[in-house]
Amino acid sequence: MPKNWPMWLGLVLGLGAIAFAFATQTGTIEQWNNAAKYTARVGFPLLILAYVARPLVDLTRSDWSKAILAKRKYIGLGFAMSHTVHLAALVTAIEVSGEGKGLVTYVFGGLAYAILYAMAFTSKTAAMKAMGKWWKRLHRTGIHYLWFIFLQSYVGRIFREETMSEGVLLASVAIAAGGIRFAAWIKQRNRRAKAVTA
Asked: What is the pLDDT of residues 77-88, one digit of tens each?
């Protein structure tokens, strides 16, 4: 199996989500609206895996967490692939329904895609070396921003009766991922403090 299989998995998941929407829904508008929803949903686990890959290693030092970290770049690229499919589905849904999104959605969603593609296009080792400290700043800020976009979207669904259970479940996953990163940060900070006082 090629080492970049998580990247292609993202594409397959995104296209599969569109196929599922068309197979289970009727009417063009309903099909594309659900295609947009499902493509976002299948990409979310890939983002979460990329988000917690390094912290899980810091916290557990387990073989399975190291295996995830070893594939983190391709997991992230898999998310980029699936979310590109989501973008196509979302644009089509807006086009066929004639119902646009609010300005805030366009601004912050557009920024999310700009950051996503900047991260994807700088995922090579050569880009890392060329960008120096700015590479880490881009990828650290970017992964937090993408996580936050999903978090606020799912938290918003908690306050609508028809999407409450979905919002609670997915927001809980996002919050748990944030908790893992925070716990790893605390552990690293404590380790540095002990090194200074030793």
From this structure: 999 999 999 999
- 173-187 pLDDT, tens per residue? 999 999 999 999 999
The CATH class of 5-197 is mainly alpha
CB burial of 128-156 (b: ≥16 within 10 Å; e: otherwise) equals eeeeeeebeebbeebbeebbebbbebbee
Q: Are 44 and 176 in contact (CB under 8 A)?
A: no
pTM of the full structure: 0.93
Domain ranges (residues) in the chain? 5-197
Q: pLDDT grade, residue 198 (50/70/90)?
A: low
Cα-based torsion angle of the residue sequence 169, 43, 118, 126 in order, rounded to the nearest 10 degrees: 120
Contact 177, 52 (CB under 8 A): yes
| Structure tokens, 85 | 């499919």
Q: What single-letter amino acid sits at 33?
A: N
HSE-up (13 A, CA, CB side) for residue 41: 15
